[in-house]
Structures are given as structure tokens and as C-alpha cells.
């Protein structure tokens, strides 16, 4: 696309639209990553979030030359914070190291055609099940943060008492629904500021002593533990992060390309190799800066709908992120019940992929069920992925459908099986006695 064909005013408007649609990540990602128990700070994570969004969206605009903006992805941030750091008690520097190594593999398989083979190896039903399972996990975290779901010694979990914060959170969800249904790009951001304003009026939160601060490059930058994250026990976790990141980015990219018409004669996304490379580099730099993996944001579709057709849209969106480096004190004043509705809403949107599942036999239904259910129930995306892949292969063997298992899937299933046996089974200990 030549420079003469660029409608600059249209591209700038599209870039602003993209930024306002995805700007909620500047607030939500630091709150997720700095949840109690992670050891991460809001200021450090906010700096990492803004910087990675700026640099990678800028790189995408220059190198890919399409209106694709990048930022830390929803779902992956919950996975890292709640499943790895809080759930499995992995120290945050080690978790960042895990992201680094999964991203390193990500880059290798993006350079070679391995990435495509992995995508093709897993059945479509499993891909949709993973997305739905992550969505349920995300929504569960949102409901928990809101206080609508609370621990119960008799029933494990129960419905919490409806108080003012929960009522405000439900109002925020309703506001998001109404604005999102009207295709308003500011739906998430407006809900956050509306609920925070009401919370201030009722004294449920306080204004910060200062509204601006300098970026925090001390807390997390380049403090990942590369050696400690290379243990054998972390191999399934690295694999899980890799697969989750892989399918998240591929689904977003395919959806964006098809909706915008950025496809070639064979139906493949335009500049696919360049996009995959930027996406994998963004994931690696996220670990260096101290946040969850960044990926192509599906919210880029709003900028495309606003007329964005070139990389200028992504460049404009990138520079819009820079002022956000200085608003850490403002983010700390935003109550968790103002951001929890976004987790719930995004989780619901991710569950929409369930409509694409086509399963009539139990050897298909059971792996799908395990993948979806085990993610929220075990508080781990990793377990859903491992049990889903292993059960799929085992059940196909049992019903004599070995031919549908590709060589790549055999390898993946073997890795997942070994991970389950070594990490969650006492069988080996029994044999060795």
C-alpha cells in the first residue's frame, strides 16, 4: 500500500479509536498482576504494561505495516498471576523466566514452520475448548475479586452477601454491556471511571495524594530468574504458556485478518510471518520488562472499523500509550470492584468460541469437558491443557481412531503425560519403594 493512498486523518482517528478501546489494559493489567500474593507492584507492572504496548505497537506499525496494536493479553495475565504465582506458589522472577523461555521457543517456531504444524496438530474442538476454559477461569477470577463468589467450608464456594461494592460492580457490568452492545469503543474505560467516581462519593476509595509519578524502572525490569525457571518441573508450565500464547495470538490474528479483508488468495492473513515474529518478540520483551505476554489485541478491530488500513493506525495508538507512564498513583485509587466486571465480561466473550465446537461422540466430548472444567476448578490453565491433550489421545486409541493422531500430537501428548505423572502422581514413588 503506497503512501499516496493513505488517508492520514482517517488513520489518525482509527489509531485513537484503537487506543481508547484497549486503554483499559493500562489499568486492569497492573491490578491483575499486582494482586495480593504475587509480590509484584502496581507501579512496576504499569510501567512495563505501557512501555511494552508502546514499543510493540510501534514496531507493528513500522514492520507489519497493518493496523495491529499489541498489549499484554487478558487471560494470560490471569494465568501468570493467579495460576502460576499464587496457585503454584512460583516466585514472580521465576514466572517471568518461564515466560521468557516459552517466548524464546515461540520465536524459534515462528521463524520455522513449526508453529503452523502445532496449530494444525490440535483438533479445532480442543482449540475452542481452551479458549472457553480460559474465559471461564477469567470470569471466575472476576466474580471472586468482586466478592460475588466467596469461600465456604461446607460447599467450597458460595454466593457472597450483596453489599454496596458488589452492587457497584454489577452496575459496571451493566454499563459495559449497554455500551459494548452499541459498539462504543470506550465501554470498558467509561465503566471504570464511572464506578470509581461513585466509589469516591461513597467513601469506598480515596484520591491519591499525588496524581502523577515517574515511571518505575526499578521494581521488575530485567529481574527475571532465567536459571531457576529451567527446572524439569517447569517444562509443562512452559509448554502451557507457549500453547496458550500460541492459540490466543493465532485466533486474534485470524479474526482480525478476516474481518478486515487482510487475506491473500489462499485465505491466509497478509504479512503473516511478520505478524507472528512481532507477536513472539513482544512476548519475550514482556518477560524482560516484568509483565505478562503481550500479543496482538483483538480490540484492534475497532480501529479497522474506523477506517484504519495501514501501520499508521498502530503508530498513533502506540504514542497514545506514552502519557500513561506517569499515572500509577491514579491507578492505585481505582477499586478492584471497578475492574472486576471487565474480567467477567471478557471471560464471557471468550466463551463464545464454544459455538464452534462440533462433537457428537464421547471420545471428543470428554477431552473438551476436561479442558474447559479443569481450568477454573484447579485454578490452573496448565491442568486443563494437559488433561485435555492426554485424554484426547488415550480415548482415540481406545476407540481405534489412531489415524487421527498426528505425529506432532503424539509428541505433545507424551510431554503432557510425563508432566502429569512426574508432577501430580505418587505412582513413581510407589514403584521405587
UniProtKB/TrEMBL annotation:
The keyword Nucleus does not apply. Pfam families: Xan_ur_permease. This is NCS2 family permease. InterPro entries: Azg-like, NCS2. It comes from the Bacteria. GO terms for molecular function: purine nucleobase transmembrane transporter activity. It comes from Fluviispira sanaruensis. Keywords: Membrane, Transmembrane, Transmembrane helix, Transport.
Amino acid at each position: 500500500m503506497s503512501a499516496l493512498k493513505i488517508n492520514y486523518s482517517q488513520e489518525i482517528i482509527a489509531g485513537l479509536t484503537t487506543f481508547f478501546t484497549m486503554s483499559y489494559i493500562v489499568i486492569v493489567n497492573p491490578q491483575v498482576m499486582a494482586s495480593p500474593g504475587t509480590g509484584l507492584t502496581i507501579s512496576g507492572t504499569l510501567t512495563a504494561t505501557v512501555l511494552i504496548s508502546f514499543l510493540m505497537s510501534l514496531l507493528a506499525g513500522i514492520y507489519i505495516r497493518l493496523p495491529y496494536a499489541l498489549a499484554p493479553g487478558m487471560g494470560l495475565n490471569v494465568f501468570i498471576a493467579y495460576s502460576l504465582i499464587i496457585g503454584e506458589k512460583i516466585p514472580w522472577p521465576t514466572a517471568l523466566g518461564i515466560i521468557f523461555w516459552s517466548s524464546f521457543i515461540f520465536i524459534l517456531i515462528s521463524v520455522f514452520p513449526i508453529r503452523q504444524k502445532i496449530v494444525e496438530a490440535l483438533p479445532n474442538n480442543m482449540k475452542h475448548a481452551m479458549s472457553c476454559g480460559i474465559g471461564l477461569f477469567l470470569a471466575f477470577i472476576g466474580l471472586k475479586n468482586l466478592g460475588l463468589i466467596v469461600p465456604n467450608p461446607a460447599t467450597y464456594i458460595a454466593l457472597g452477601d450483596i453489599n454496596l461494592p458488589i452492587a457497584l460492580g454489577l452496575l459496571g457490568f451493566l454499563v459495559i454491556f449497554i455500551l459494548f452492545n452499541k459498539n462504543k469503543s470506550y465501554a470498558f474505560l467509561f465503566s471504570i471511571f464511572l464506578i470509581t467516581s461513585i466509589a469516591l462519593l461513597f467513601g469506598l476509595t480515596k484520591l491519591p495524594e499525588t496524581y502523577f509519578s515517574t515511571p518505575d524502572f526499578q521494581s521488575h525490569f530485567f529481574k527475571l530468574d532465567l536459571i531457576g525457571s529451567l527446572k524439569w518441573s517447569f517444562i509443562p508450565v512452559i509448554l502451557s504458556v507457549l500453547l496458550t500464547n500460541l492459540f490466543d495470538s493465532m485466533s486474534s490474528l485470524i479474526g482480525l485478518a478476516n474481518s478486515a479483508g487482510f487475506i491473500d488468495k489462499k485465505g491466509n492473513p497478509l504479512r503473516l510471518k511478520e505478524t507472528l515474529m512481532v507477536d513472539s518478540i513482544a512476548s519475550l520483551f514482556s518477560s524482560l520488562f516484568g509483565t505478562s505476554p503481550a500479543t496482538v489485541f483483538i480490540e484492534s478491530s475497532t480501529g479497522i472499523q474506523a477506517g484504519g488500513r495501514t501501520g499508521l493506525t498502530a503508530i498513533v495508538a502506540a504514542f497514545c500509550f506514552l502519557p500513561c507512564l506517569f499515572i500509577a498513583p491514579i491507578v492505585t485509587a481505582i477499586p478492584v470492584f471497578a475492574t472486576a466486571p471487565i474480567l467477567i465480561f471478557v471471560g464471557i466473550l471468550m466463551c463464545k468460541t464454544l459455538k464452534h465446537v462440533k462433537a457428537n461422540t464421547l471420545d471428543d466430548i470428554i477431552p473438551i469437558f476436561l479442558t474447559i472444567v479443569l481450568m477454573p476448578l484447579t485454578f490452573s490453565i496448565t491442568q486443563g491443557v494437559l488433561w485435555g491433550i492426554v485424554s484426547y489421545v488415550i480415548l482415540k486409541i481406545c476407540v481405534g481412531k489412531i489415524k487421527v493422531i498426528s505425529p506432532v500430537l503424539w509428541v505433545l501428548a507424551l510431554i503432557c503425560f510425563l508432566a502429569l505423572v512426574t508432577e501430580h502422581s505418587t505412582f513413581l514413588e510407589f514403584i521405587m519403594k
